[in-house]
Amino acid sequence: MNSIPKIRLIFSNSYKPLSPIIRAVTWSDYSHVGMLIDDTTVIESTLSHGGVKLAPIDVFKQRASEWLIVELDIIVNDWDAIVKAAMNELNKPYDFFGIAGIGLHRDWQEDDRWFCSELIPYICM
To answer: Which of 10, 82, 90, 102 is deepest in the core (most CB within 10 A)?
Structure first.
């Protein structure tokens, strides 16, 4: 990894039936996002794996019909704090109610369960 770590996100689509639905509702080219915590490991929250887990990047890519890595042009002052925050979220459950909550003005500040696009900004705060 570079001497100055960058936040690297990996976006993907899957072969599963929810992928096109998520893309349609979010107006996005991708239905899932994870964050690389090093060159070989992704942290993500998935319905199929029951919440926040680590995945080898090769396994993440194998599950995807397509994927894209984006390096954010953000200065990271304390990469170790970001990784620690990520590790603190491991094994928290998937946020099943978050999808329904979008239309119901759900309290987005809850930190007891995550879907993928909630998790990444939280651990980077």
So the answer is: 10
Which of 123, 48, 125, 60 has the alpha carbon at shortest distance from 93? 48
116 in Cβ contact with 33 (< 8 Å)? yes
- Relative to beta strand 64-71, strand 51-56 is unpaired
pTM for this entry: 0.87
Q: What pLDDT, in 10s, does the model give residues 77-89?
A: 899 999 999 999 9
Bridge partners (DSSP) of residue 19 are none
How far is CA 52 from each of CA 4, 13, 25, 76, 115, rounded to the nearest angstrom?
Answer: 26, 18, 22, 23, 8
